[in-house]
Amino acid sequence: MIDTFRHKGMRKQLRRVLLLKGIKNIAVLDAIEKIPRHLFLDKAFEEHAYEDKAFRIGAGQTISQPYTVAKQTELLELKRNEKVLEIGTGSGYQSSVLAECGARVYSIERQKLLHDTARPLLSELGYNIKTFYGDGYLGLPSYAPFDKVIVTAGAPFIPPALIEQLKVGGILVIPVGEGKEQVMKTVTKISATEVEIKEHGEFRFVPLLEDKAGK
Ligand code: SAH
Question: Is residue 212 part of a domain?
């Protein structure tokens, strides 16, 4: 687990790139500058870890592009100590960004291999993030309600359980669409029965898949 001055320099540069692309939230930019993204990637990609690109992380999945991670986090409008549910732990990078922004993070992953890799890495890096092996479509009913929910895979529809498990006033950030591109949506729960949905442009994600846990 080596983090060099060179890595730190590349992260400063990545921060500038994200600022130029329109990310304004200082806590988010600080998190990106602080977290050693190269440790979440395969060694083979280490040289490229601070380019604004997505990479394969095994099991057919990807670590999202830093801009996408920053944008989704910014859309959550996090306040310190909020309870946040993440669907799709993947490498654990997005979880660590949420934690650096002061969130209490609960993250679900349906691929055992990724869950088993991210969990020890996050604790080795000193993050107190609760990771779960399971199906994100169901959320985490026993830990609900959440202040915020973030889905990091392309969903064919907005899973009703995730709205149910959101507090009134809470925000769900979710890329929706079944094709190659998804539309980033924010779903704000304005009352127990009403939501307000806004759209924030197109992004590319791997698909949110039906339950695989335990199979
Ligand atoms: N947040 C991750 C991005 C991972 S890509 C990161 O920062 O690296 C999306 C992840 O969602 C993949 O790891 C994929 O296995 C996972 N996923 C897909 N369908 C899921 C489901 N139904 N429940 C939980 N995780 C799921």
Answer: no
Q: Per-residue pLDDT tens for 130-189?
A: 999 999 999 999 999 999 999 999 999 999 999 999 999 999 999 999 999 999 999 999
Within a domain: 26: yes
pTM for this prediction: 0.97
* 45 in Cβ contact with 72 (< 8 Å): no
Residue ID of nearest Cα to ligand 1 atom 4: 90
Q: Which amino acid is at 33?
A: E
Q: Using CA positions, which residue lies closest to atom 16 of ligand 1?
A: 88
Contact 85, 165 (CB under 8 A): yes
Within the chain, where are the H helices? 5-20, 26-34, 66-75, 93-100, 112-124, 160-164
Q: How far is the centre of ligand 1, averaged over its atoms, from the C-alpha of 101 (Å)?
A: 20
| Ligand 1 centroid – CA 112 distance (Å) | 11
- Report which ligand 1 atom has the smallest distance to the Cα of 153: 9
Q: How far apart are CA 74 and CA 7, in angstroms?
A: 24
Position 215 in a domain: no
Tell me whether residue 213 is in a domain: no
DSSP, res 108: E
Domain of 169 in residue numbering reads as: 5-203
Amino acid at the residue 7: H
